[in-house]
Specification:
single chain, alpha/beta, Rossmann fold, 2 domains, four-stranded antiparallel sheet, 16 helices, 30% helix, Subtilisin family serine protease, protease, serine protease, hydrolase, serine-type endopeptidase activity
Length: 545
C-alpha cells in the first residue's frame, strides 16, 4: 500500500543496443559514426573534481568565500586519515592558517573563494603527480625488487593503486548545502516559511492524524513542540493485528516518520552546537548509489506546531491492507463523535493502491466512500495521488519506451471530496510535474489530481529501515531523503493546518478549505490532468480570505 515506490537509488538503465555504432537504423537511415575519444586536457581534471553545482556558484561568487564540502578519496594509498591530513595542509597552503577547516570522517568542510578552490585542486593534482614519480623511482632499484639499499621489501609497501589519479587526496568538492536543505527548500516552495513569519501560521491548536507506518516518538524533530503529546481522549493507535497501541509511536519502516516530519515538527541548533546531519542520495555514474551528507541548522515541517495523531496502518515491512485503513478512519469518526465535536481536524493518507475500474465504480470503493464520509463530517482529508504515472510502451520499431500514462490516480485518491496531491520537484516551475506522479482524470472522467506539491528528494525525519540504508554512508544522519507522492501529500496537509490555524472559522468546513487551497494555487502551465489546479501556495491561500 505504500505509495513511495519511486526508488531514488535505482541504477540508470543502459542505452538500448540500437543506439550503438551500427551504420543503419531500423528505418534505413544512416547513423552517426561512433564517437571519437575525448581529447585529454588539464581542464577535464578540474571539471571532474569540482561538482557542477559548485562550478555554477563559483561563476557567480566573485571573491566571496563559498562553503564547500570536500569528499576525500577513500582509496588513497595512505587511507582516509592521510587524505584528510593532506587536504587540511593544502587548505592552509592556498588559503592561510585562519581559514576554517572542519574534518568530518571522510569529508572536510571549509569556506574558500573560487580562486582558492581551483588552487586547491591544482595543488592536489601536483601532489598526486609527485607521488607517482616517487613511486616509479622507488621501483627502479635493485633489479626491480622495489627496495633501496639498506631497506627490505617489507619496509616498502607497494601502492594500493597505481597512477596519479588514484593518489589524489580529493575525490570531489561539493557546495555546502546546509543553507538549502530540501525540506527547507520545500518550505520556501510552498511559501510556508513566509506564512510562518507574516501570519504566525504554525498549525497551532490543530490535530492532524497520520495514517501510516507509525511515528517515531523518540525522534528529536517532534520534541521542540511536543507534537505527539495529546490530551485524552486522543490516543495513538495501532491497527495492525497482534500489536499493542504503543507500537503506533514506533516506526521500523521509517515511512510514517518521514511523512510526519514534513507535516509538522521542527529542530533548531545553535551556532555553537554541531549541525544536524541529513543523508541524501546521488549516483556518480551508472554504478551504485552513494550517500552524501548535508548539514542543517534548522529544519521545519509545514505546520511545525501542529499536533500529530499516529494511526499505525502499515506493518513494519511497509505492507498493509484496506481493513486497517478503514478501521483507522472509523476511529477518527468516533473521536470526533461523528462530527459533533471535532478533536481531529485533518488526516494525511500517503498510502493507497492502484485502482482497477473492474473492482468498483471509480470513487465508490469502500476506502473512497469512507474518506468522503469523513470529509462530510468536517475533517480535511489529504491523500497521495500515487506513483504509477508512467510505464512502458512498444513503438512501431519494437523498442520499449518509457512514457507517461493518464487515468492512473490511485485509491483513495479517487475519492471526490479528498484533496488529491501529485508531486513536483522543489523547482516546479522549471521541471513541472514528476514523471512518476499519477495522472488524471479519474476512471469516470472527474478532474484529478487537485494540487501538486514537492515530492522529489525531500529531506525529513529519518528512522527505521529508511534511515538504516543511509547510515552506512552517513553514520551520524538523523534526517534522510525520500521521494514519491507520499512526500507531496503532507506538504498540503501542513499548508492546510497552517491555513486553519490562522483562519479558524474554516475549522469543520473542509469543502471551504479545499476550495481556498485550489483557487489560490499557482499554475505551472501544465495540463490539468498533470498539475490539477497547480502548486499549493500557503501565502496566497491565507491572503485570499
Amino acid at each position: 500500500m505504500d505509495q513511495d515506490n519511486a526508488d531514488p537509488g535505482r541504477p540508470a538503465e543502459p542505452l538500448p543496443a540500437e543506439f550503438g555504432s551500427a551504420k543503419q537504423n531500423a528505418y534505413g537511415g544512416d547513423r552517426a559514426d561512433p564517437l571519437s575519444p575525448v581529447p585529454t586536457s588539464p581542464s577535464l581534471v578540474t571539471d571532474s573534481v569540482i561538482a557542477r553545482p559548485l562550478q555554477e556558484r563559483m561563476r557567480e561568487s566573485g571573491n566571496e568565500p563559498i562553503g564547500v564540502v570536500i569528499e576525500l578519496r577513500t582509496r588513497h594509498p595512505g587511507g582516509v586519515p592521510r587524505a584528510q591530513s593532506r587536504v587540511r595542509e593544502l587548505i592552509v597552503q592556498v588559503a592561510g592558517a585562519s581559514t576554517p577547516v572542519w574534518p568530518i570522517g571522510s569529508y572536510v568542510s571549509s569556506a574558500l573563494t573560487a580562486t582558492q578552490i581551483r588552487a586547491l585542486v591544482a595543488a592536489d593534482a601536483t601532489d598526486a603527480a609527485d607521488a607517482d614519480a616517487d613511486a616509479e623511482a622507488e621501483a627502479e632499484v635493485d633489479g626491480g625488487t622495489g627496495t633501496r639499499p639498506g631497506r627490505t621489501v617489507e619496509e616498502v609497501a607497494p601502492p594500493a593503486v597505481s597512477g596519479p589519479a588514484q593518489r589524489w587526496s580529493i575525490h570531489r568538492i561539493w557546495p555546502n548545502f546546509e543553507v538549502q536543505p530540501l525540506i527547507h527548500r520545500s518550505v520556501v516552495t510552498t511559501k510556508c516559511q513566509a506564512a510562518h513569519r507574516a501570519f504566525n501560521a504554525y498549525g497551532q491548536d490543530l490535530v492532524w492524524a497520520v495514517l501510516d507506518s507509525g511515528i517515531d516518538a523518540a525522534h528529536p524533530h517532534f520534541h521542540r513542540h511536543d507534537n505527539l503529546g495529546l490530551a485524552a481522549p486522543l490516543a495513538h493507535r495501532s491497527f495492525i493485528f497482534g500489536t499493542s497501541d504503543d507500537q503506533a509511536v514506533v516506526d521500523l519502516a521509517g515511512h510514517g516518520t518521514h511523512v510526519a516530519g514534513i507535516l509538522a515538527g521542527e529542530q533548531i541548533v545553535d551556532d555553537s552546537a554541531p549541525p544536524l546531519t541529513a543523508a541524501t542520495w546521488y549516483q556518480p555514474d551508472a554504478g551504485d548509489t552513494r550517500c552524501e551528507r548535508v548539514h542543517l541548522r534548522t529544519i521545519s515541517g509545514m505546520a511545525p506546531r501542529c499536533k500529530l495523531l499516529s494511526c499505525k496502518i502499515l506493518r513494519d515491512d511497509g505492507s498493509g491492507d484496506m481493513a486497517a485503513v478503514l478501521a483507522a478512519l472509523e476511529y477518527i469518526q468516533e473521536l470526533n463523535d461523528h462530527g459533533r465535536e471535532l478533536l481531529v481536524h485533518g488526516v494525511n493518507l500517503s498510502v493507497g493502491y492502484p485502482f482497477d475500474p473492474t473492482w468498483f465504480a471509480t470513487g465508490l470503493s469502500p476506502i473512497c466512500r469512507e474518506v468522503d464520509r469523513l470529509v462530510q463530517s468536517g475533517v480535511v482529508v489529504v491523500v497521495a495521488a500515487g506513483n504509477t504515472g508512467y510505464g512502458y510502451v512498444i513503438d512501431a520499431g519494437g523498442r520499449r519506451m518509457r512514457t507517461a500514462f493518464d487515468l492512473t490516480i490511485n485509491d483513495p485518491g479517487n475519492a471526490e471530496l479528498a484533496i488529491t496531491v501529485g508531486a513536483t520537484s522543489c523547482r516546479p516551475h522549471a521541471s513541472g510535474v514528476s514523471y512518476f506522479s499519477s495522472k488524471g482524470p479519474t476512471g469516470d472522467g472527474r478532474a484529478k489530481p487537485d494540487l501538486v506539491a514537492p515530492g522529489e528528494r525531500v529531506i525529513s525525519a529519518g528512522t527505521g529501515r529508511l534511515l538504516e540504508r543511509a547510515l552506512a554512508g552517513v553514520p551520524e544522519a538523523t534526517y534522510v531523503e525520500n521521494s514519491g507522492t507520499s512526500m507531496a501529500a503532507p506538504h498540503v496537509s501542513g499548508v492546510a493546518a497552517a491555513f486553519m490555524s490562522v483562519h479558524q472559522e474554516f475549522i469543520g468546513q473542509p469543502h471551504r478549505v479545499k476550495r481556498a487551497l485550489l483557487e489560490s494555487a499557482t499554475s505551472l502551465g501544465r495540463d490539468r490532468s498533470f498539475q490539477g489546479y497547480g502548486l499549493v501556495d500557503a501565502m496566497r491561500a491565507l491572503q485570499s480570505v
